[in-house]
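Colleagues,

Please find the record for the four-part complex below.
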Amino acid sequence: MLILLVEDDAVLAAQTIDFLNAEGIEVDYAATLGRAREIAAQTASFDKYDAIILDMSLPDGNALSLLQQSLAGFDAPVLFCTAATYLDDKLAAFAAGALDYITKPFALPELAVRVKLLAGKVSKCNQVFELGSLHVDFSAKIVRRGNRTIVLSPQQWLLLTLLAEQAPAPVSKAQILRHIWPDSEVNNNMYKSLLTRLRYNLSRDNEPSVIQTLKGQGVALRESS
Amino acid sequence: MLILLVEDDAVLAAQTIDFLNAEGIEVDYAATLGRAREIAAQTASFDKYDAIILDMSLPDGNALSLLQQSLAGFDAPVLFCTAATYLDDKLAAFAAGALDYITKPFALPELAVRVKLLAGKVSKCNQVFELGSLHVDFSAKIVRRGNRTIVLSPQQWLLLTLLAEQAPAPVSKAQILRHIWPDSEVNNNMYKSLLTRLRYNLSRDNEPSVIQTLKGQGVALRESS
DNA sequence: TAGCATGGTAACCACAAGGTAACAGTATAG
DNA sequence: CTATACTGTTACCTTGTGGTTACCATGCTA
């Protein structure tokens, strides 16, 4: 999981980053609004972030404007944090499209929980996933196609669960790379091989693959039609 | 929108119900955990609620157990509220599957916002745009015309979402150029090609294009008339 | 009527993205 | 210690995308 932290207090930022790292969350850091905008421009979007933590009281401008920008076509959910207890601030941010807020001073464990929630990590409520003749039991870690039980390698299982969580929405290549090879330098071929192998294992005679490619957008778990 | 409020303080409950009603939110009310369980049993599920507001400090039992129950196969998202500021309580509830919390005493407008967000999270997942036989699912990135599924290239998808967001208002050429080719030098032909291709992909026999041109002003997504 | 601007369509093609198979190094199990 | 499976790597092939050009249609103006 990768998030963007926009926060001017260097000490607080350092603490936050340390804590989130310990929780397995990667953090990109912007000390100012200007820097955040640079990042947005560089990557051409905020798409690559699972969530954005946005401090409302930044020295160089109005954080609300960045919020608007992040929502203009991008999906990254925004959690804003504010020292002010003024209700109006909170309501304004919600109105602008923020999905959650936390009041300073906050407890780091709570921040971590909220970030994870925002990123949708907890939506693993569904114990089983079914699609046509494909049957995935998350808790038992069993995959079946029709009446044949399929054994997947660790990587393939990870990818399948990721796809199933988001189905039928597509999952971008970048998202998959981050999810399966969190640290290591990744090479495009590893991704291609993994996909081919998962497709092969899930395949069944005469039936089209359940893994659809949307060129340039990623892959999705859905029935062809 | 219909929600369930589980709260033992009658005065607070009445205020809350009044306020939420004024916001256009219908409220079912349970004063005790027992009553909440009855409701769950009657309707056979909490499914019919868009959200559940759950007070943690109820006289007749542990609210966490209801939380578990409400998650056992049902989809209603839970917002819990607590007078305690103990962090552990919050973390426990999050761990049990709550999606949000609010600390007493809370401001009613904030509660209303959070409830709407919570209820929206579920429906927001299925944000769709419809126009005649055209059907666009933003989160799943699926486009259908009638019962035919359409696959769009990244550029075309970007343009379609832009048009759909503003529909039925027209989008100027300059706006489109900036949105799709943010940095690069743009040539007018690229724009023309893109439009033609999107029109072609969205076309259906005998039906006029859903993309109308307003000369000099741009293009708009609307039915011809 | 010619001339020009705006907009639409079709065809071409370089090239990047995606798919497959085979091989090799390394871990893992029996 | 051997056999097996997993995963990274390379090579090669296929396909769709998107920039480009050429040409046509319409409408406005001189």
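The longest strand of chain B covers residues 2-6.

Comments are welcome before we finalize the supplementary table.
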